[in-house]
Amino acid sequence: MSTVATTDPVLTPRQSTGISLRGRLQDALPKIVLAPSFVITIIFVYGFIVWTAYLSFTNSKTFPSYALTGPRAYQRLWRWTFESDPPSSWYTSITNMAIFGFLYIGICLALGLFLAILLDQKIRGESVLRPIFLYPMALSFIVTGVAWKWFLDPGLGLEQTLHHFGWTSFHFDWIKNKDFVIYTVVIAGVWQASGFVMAMFLAGLRGIDGEIMKAAQIDGASSFQLYRRIVIPLLRPIFLSAFIVLAHMAIKSYDLVVALTSGGPGGSAWLPSNFMYEYTFKRNEMAVGSASAIIMLMTISAIIVPYLYSELKEKAR
Amino acid sequence: MSKFLSSAAVAVVMMAGLSAAHAADVKEVQMLHWWTSGGEAAALNVLKQDLSKEGFAWKDVPVAGGGGDAAMTALKAMVAAGTYPTASQMLGYTVLDYAQAGVMGDLTETAKKEGWDKSVPAALQKFSVYDGKWVAAPVNVHSVNWLWINKAVMDKIGGTQPKTFDELIALLDKAKAAGVIPLALGGQNWQEATMFDSIVLSTGGPEFYKKAFNDLDEESLKSDTMKKSFDNLATIIKYVDPNFSGRDWNLATAMVIKGDALVQVMGDWAKGEFVAAKKTPDTDFLCYRFPGTDGSVVYNSDMFGMFNVPDDRKAAQVALATATLSKSFQSAFNVVKGSVPARTDVPDTDFDACGKKGIADLKAANEGGTLFGSLAQGYGAPPAIANAYKDVVSKFVHGQIKTSDEAVKQLVQAIDDAR
């Protein structure tokens, strides 16, 4: 019992001077355990961000070179951003990012919420339906990409099948069409992630106090009003979490584009991550690749940081 | 805590075991390559057998993907990590890039002993010798400006060998009328650019090709001839089936082999696929030079770049290099692969009709000064420029760039950016 007393966290200063080795160790233990992962994070996340930033100001081609040559890579990206006719790969990448990010996050949130509300109606077989919707999330984007690639391929999948059934006028070649290929990426992405968003919303719905709902019903609120005025506003924190998860999945999507479209006809399905990878590792233009990575980081920061800040400030109030 | 420690210990032991396994095999040749299609894999087996006779084990590091993009990425990671393979399949300027970075080995001694200087064409030595040292062993010479035609389909539509670009288009029209896919193409940027190499040579002639795609002369790049080349590309693209985007080159070849399509414009590695499918030239398939390019050869060459491996692994490397450039291997390998030997003193007895024509064409082009590096295949310019070029051609094929004026403007700009 006496040892327990010495490690009691509420010690007076006088008592703690005489603290045993074990006590001190226990105080320091969290720091010791955290230190390696802290150091690793500092080096491999923030260290490499700094390194990438440095490389973007050099003339690195196949391998890194360390002689600074000024912001040439950024000048090129700047020109590629505004020289949209005919579109450069970079312009295609960032416009695709806007389309994909907006639709992917938007549809996932809407569809996820909709499914969650339907599932929340105390329907029979919910425990069967829930994993069915959730399980696409268990697949890797590569698997999703390949499966949808076959499904959407006009020579193999949906179109061919419907032709076999006799609907020969059916035509769906988005995956081979430079203007629409990015929407097939949205379709596959939404298919994979909306079940997961549904699960998040469902958990949120189950967490809402039944008393509030009952009170509202007694006051004569219709179902629609109930969701519109009470339930959805209460789900605000879930929206935030889902948005953060979806946003980072959208921004890091690389594998889906590669597996589904191999970059699309003439590179028309590229996202900035594809651009970064292609230029850094395939085209031996490491400086341009690094610059694009830094621009991606800054863009994300510009959106996420103020958003997080406002959300967290509100919570603290 | 103790559980954590023990699992950490296990991890350390495992890592030590791995690196020990890595260092142990000095009698082993590690080869990174992207020869994963049927014909290619069969061709590589010849070398494996040669080496195993000398007691060297073979360790494949295959990275799939026709143009070798993925393999080059893997190689870069290996080199950056300091774990050099014994050798890697490489193309042209990539060899020089790595040589410049100082990671290539030195095979000059072996080269002297084997007399490579005399037997390997000068055009190839430009890429296999860096700073006076042999850093790579050329395996073969491919030429890019070929047409591969299914003979049965050709007979059915009553076609003859096209001598000019217009005749080619007329032939494609016939195939279209007969309900066959006229042109088999895979919509990957290197395939499109490989075809465009031939089109530019056909449209502008040998002088123009050299100036534009080897010397990167800006006047030639933005000339009307280049515009005309893009117009010709636009014309020929209309004969491709709508489902071509993203198709691998060997699948496109398979379309010709099966008779679903009439013709493929592809380098002579396509012949390896015909051979692997047990087809014979002149009875099952026809090989013609791309119309209007007879007498010139747009080449690329597979090289085995030799890395600066530790001394105890040198013996295996030398054995590999010697075996690679031996006459018997050059003949046996290239018969299967579809290409022609990288040395000029190999007899053509074992080669089929297409191979014999290839060897003769190469010899003539080498002597006549019409042997040009293929820009699409990394022999015309460094990778950054070659990739910028492939990008523009691909965007044109897929309609992001709509007119030949725009294409030329973009091409000049992209090459300028990548310089």
Could you walk me through the main structural features you see in this protein, from its secondary elements to its overall organization?
The complex is a heterodimer of chains A (317) and B (419). With 317 residues, chain A is mainly alpha-helical. Chain A has 15 helices and no strands. Chain A has helices spanning 2-6, 13-17, 21-55, 72-82, 89-119, 126-134, 141-152, 158-164, 181-206, 210-218, 223-234, 236-252, 255-261, 272-282, 286-316. In chain A, helix 14 (272-282) packs antiparallel against helix 15 (286-316). Chain A is globular. The two termini of chain A are 42 Å apart. Residues 1-8 of chain A have low confidence and may be disordered. Chain B is of the alpha/beta class and 419 residues long. In chain B, 55% of the residues are buried. In chain B, strand 1 (28-33), helix 2 and strand 2 (57-62) form a beta-alpha-beta unit. Mean pLDDT of chain B is 86; it is low at 1-24. Chain B is built from 19 helices and 15 strands. The interface between A and B is medium-sized, with 27 and 35 residues.
| Overall geometric form of chain A | globular
**How does the overall form of chain B come out from the CA principal axes?**
globular
Helical content of chain B stands at: 55-70%
Count every beta strand of chain B, where a strand is a DSSP E run of 2 or more residues.
Answer: 15
Strand order of the largest sheet of chain B: 2-1-3-13-6
Radius of gyration of chain A in whole Å, from Cα? 26 Å
Give the amount of beta strand of chain B, in percent: 5-15%
Helix and strand content put the structural class of chain A at mainly alpha
Radius of gyration of chain B: 22 Å
Number of helices of chain B: 19
